[in-house]
Amino acid sequence: MKKIKSFGISALRNEESFGFLKLVVAETDNLPSEETTPVGLTNAVAALETAYNQFDIALESAAANPDVATAAAADTARDQAWRGVNNYLTAMLAHPDEEKRTLARMFKDEFDKYGDPTNLSQTEESGVLHNLLQDTQSYASHLKEPIYLDAWLSDLNAKEEAFLEAVEARNRSEASRAARIGQVKETRTAAETTYRTLVDTVNALALLNGDADYADFIDHVNAMIDRQKQVIKTRATNHAKKKEDEKPGELS
Question: How far apart are CA 14 and CA 182, in angstroms?
Fold first, then answer.
C-alpha cells in the first residue's frame, strides 16, 4: 500500500517550507473530486490552503519594507535639491549685474561654509542642512528676491522635511519587524500542522479504502519529499565540511 513518507518539514528554511507547501497545495488537484471526497479530506485540504495563504501574507509582510525605499528616494531628492541651489548660486556669481553677483556671493559663502553635505551620513547631512537653511532663511526677503533664491531654498527645505518624515516612517517599520518575524513563525507552524493533518488523512484513507484514488498525489508528494530531504542532507554535509575546514591546523 502506498503512503506518504514521514518528513521533518520543520528542518526546512522559511522559503523552502513555503515552496514545498505551495507544491503540495497544487498537488491536491490530484485528489478525488469533491463528489467522492470524504468530508475529512475536504476539510484538511481547505485548512492547508487557508494556512498556506496566511503564511504567504506573513512572508511578504516581513520581507517588504517600502519605507526603506521611500527614505532612500527622499535622501536622493534632497541631495539633488542641494546641488541645484549650489549650482545656481555658482552660476549667479557670473551674472552681468553687479548687485546680483554680490548677493549670490553672500549666499554662496554660506553654502561654502558648510561644504558639500551630500557625501555625509544621512544624520550628519540633516544636521548640516538644518544649520544651512536656518542661516540662509534668516536673511531678509529683499536680499533673496533679486536673485529669486526663495524658491530654491523653499524647495530644499521641503525636500529635507520630506526626508525626515520618510526616516520616521522607516524607523517605525523597522521597530515592528520583530512582530512581523513572529507572525511568520506562527503562520508557518500553522501551515505545517495542516500539512501533517492532510498527510495523516490521506494515509488513513489509502489504508482503509485502497490507494488507487490517492496514488498520484502520494507519488508526487513523496518525490517532493525526497528532493527536500536531499537538500537538507547536502546542507548538513556542507556545514560539517565548513566546520572541519575552520578548525586550526595541527602543529607538527
Answer: 12
Query: 197-231, pLDDT tens digit by residue?
Result: 999 999 999 999 999 999 999 999 999 999 999 98
Cβ–Cβ < 8 Å for 67, 173: yes
Q: Measuring CA to CA, which residue among 76, 89, 75 is closest to residue 152?
A: 89
Is the alpha carbon torsion for 127, 132, 135, 138 positive or negative? negative
Amino acid at 83: R
Question: Residue 114: CA atoms inside 13 Å, Cβ hemisphere, count?
Answer: 24
- Whose grid coordinates read 586550526? 248
Contact between 202 and 4 under an 8 Å Cβ cutoff? The reply is yes
Helix axes 215-246, 177-209, angle to 10 degrees: 130
Contact 13, 218 (CB under 8 A): no
Distance from C-alpha of 116 to C-alpha of 41, rounded to nearest angstrom: 67
Give residue-wise pLDDT tens across range 37-55: 788 999 999 999 999 999 9
Q: Would you state the cell numbers that stand for residue 144, as one nine-digit string?
A: 533673496
Closest to 48 measured CA to CA, from 192, 181, 144: 192
